[in-house]
């Protein structure tokens, strides 16, 4: 892990100025953090099941649960990027804006066109965040949280970019969204922090998709229903917990989202042919 990523994970925030000149095309993949970019240049942005060709200045919002890639086309490319974790905003009284905001949803509007006047104002906010990030001010985290929320409020006043909605290989992109979110649910690290997403409906709701749309896409791309992928991961995690922890079966059942241990026992036996206790005994 690079020092940059280590520092980012420790404090949950980083803001920096993009390179003013780049000779090669660059690709930005999904990170573990929410991202807000103010960029001027020509690029192609792939976000979930949509693609967008951007030229000029745009404001982009990236969600860690939604795969996206950013292809920079022009060699002159300037702007700012702000990365932050959900935990960084968790102490802020309006931290729920992340979940309510239309900018961070699959079906939302992650890209906004920015006028020159708007660019100058937003540039100032990013520059202020950089200044505070490098300062010794004791409450700079609180101040930076205010700047992030100010950017979100300013964005909500703006109009969404046009021509965003060209679905290119939609099934593959939606399947990637689902599979990445599924992977992020595991491993289960504590019995008191149970699995939150257990059904296709849970995943569809989390991704702001209709469950039928999600099911069709996943089945088309993988040949298996959404529920099968979820079940495979739950059983694999159950086996790992039975083999490598001392948690009792009731704790494991709760950690995997089962209301009662008996439900987990029946589920595990139906999927593996053995009850959890017998599996654990054989695995020792």
From TrEMBL:
Residues 172-282 form the HTH araC/xylS-type domain. It comes from the Bacteria. Keywords: DNA-binding, Transcription, Transcription regulation. It holds the Pfam family HTH_18. One of its GO terms (molecular function) is DNA-binding transcription factor activity. The keyword Flavoprotein does not apply. This is AraC family transcriptional regulator. The lineage of its organism: Bacteria, Pseudomonadati, Bacteroidota, Sphingobacteriia, Sphingobacteriales.
């Amino acid at each position: 892990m690079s020092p940059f990523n280590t520092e980012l994970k420790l404090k949950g925030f980083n803001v920096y100025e993009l390179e003013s000149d780049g000779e090669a095309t660059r690709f930005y993949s999904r990170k573990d953090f929410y991202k807000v970019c103010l960029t001027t240049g020509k690029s192609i942005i792939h976000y979930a099941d949509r693609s967008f060709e951007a030229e000029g200045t745009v404001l982009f919002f990236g969600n860690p649960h939604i795969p996206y890639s950013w292809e920079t086309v022009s060699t002159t490319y300037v702007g700012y990027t702000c990365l932050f974790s959900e935990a960084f905003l968790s102490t802020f009284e309006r931290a729920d804006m992340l979940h309510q905001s239309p900018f961070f949803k699959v079906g939302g509007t992650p890209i906004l066109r920015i006028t020159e006047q708007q660019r100058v104002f937003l540039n100032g906010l990013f520059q202020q965040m950089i200044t505070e990030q490098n300062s010794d001010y004791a409450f700079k985290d609180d101040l930076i949280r205010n700047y992030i929320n100010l950017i979100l409020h300013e964005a909500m006043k703006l109009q969404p970019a046009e021509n965003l909605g060209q679905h290119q290989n939609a099934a593959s992109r939606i399947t990637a969204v689902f599979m990445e979110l599924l992977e992020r649910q595991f491993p289960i690290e504590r019995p008191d922090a149970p699995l939150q997403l257990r059904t296709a409906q849970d995943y569809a709701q989390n991704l702001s998709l209709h469950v039928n749309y999600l099911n069709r896409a996943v089945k088309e791309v993988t040949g298996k229903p959404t529920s099968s992928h979820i079940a495979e991961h739950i059983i694999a995690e159950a086996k790992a917990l039975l083999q490598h922890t001392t948690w009792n079966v009731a704790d494991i059942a709760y950690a995997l989202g089962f209301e009662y241990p008996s439900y987990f026992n029946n589920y595990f036996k139906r999927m593996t042919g053995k009850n959890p206790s017998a599996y654990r005994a054989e695995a020792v």
